[in-house]
Amino acid sequence: MCLGLLCCVALFIWGAGSMDTEVTQSPSHLVKGKGQKAKMDCVPIKGHINVYWYRRKLEEAFEFLVYFQKQDIVKGTEVFKERFSAECHQNSPCSLEINSTEAVDAALYFCASSQSTVLRVSSS
Q1: pLDDT of 6 strictly over 50
Q2: pTM for the complete prediction?
Q3: What domains does the chain contain, in order, with CATH numbers?
Q4: Left (φ > 0), alpha (ψ -120 to 50) or beta: where does 47 sit?
């Protein structure tokens, strides 16, 4: 049985300003109990077709979760595929949802956007 905040998951979303010049995320924070759904929205910079979701757990590096190009998921990590879902429809906010929250989900969630992406080419 959960007691107070010990079983709650705190999710913080990196906020930003104007919708035309900066990525906007909402809500600014979420507190959910174990096993609940948690949904976050992101409005990319106007004209950007690529959207990325990351998370950062306390005292850890940013962890890539998923990358959209237009409305299609281009790449998602195993963690994303196992525990998250996401959508990015034209003319509406992109969303990231944790299907069933666990204590390990307590983190800062960060959305970014870009007009294009850099293709990495490895030299063999």
Answers
A1: no
A2: 0.76
A3: 8-34+41-114 (2.60.40.10)
A4: left
Query: What letter represents residue 63's amino acid?
Result: E
Distances (CA, A) of 18 to 7, 31, 37, 45, 87: 35, 25, 28, 9, 22
Does residue 93 have a cis peptide bond before it, meaning omega lies within 30 degrees of 0?
no
10 Å CB burial of residue 4 (0-12, 13-18, 19+) is exposed
Phi and psi torsions of 7, nearest 5°: -105, 10
Range of weakest confidence among 21-25, 65-69, 97-101: 21-25
- 110, 53 contact by CB (below 8 A): yes
Residue with tokens 């949904």: 39
Q: For residue 90, what pLDDT is reported?
A: 81
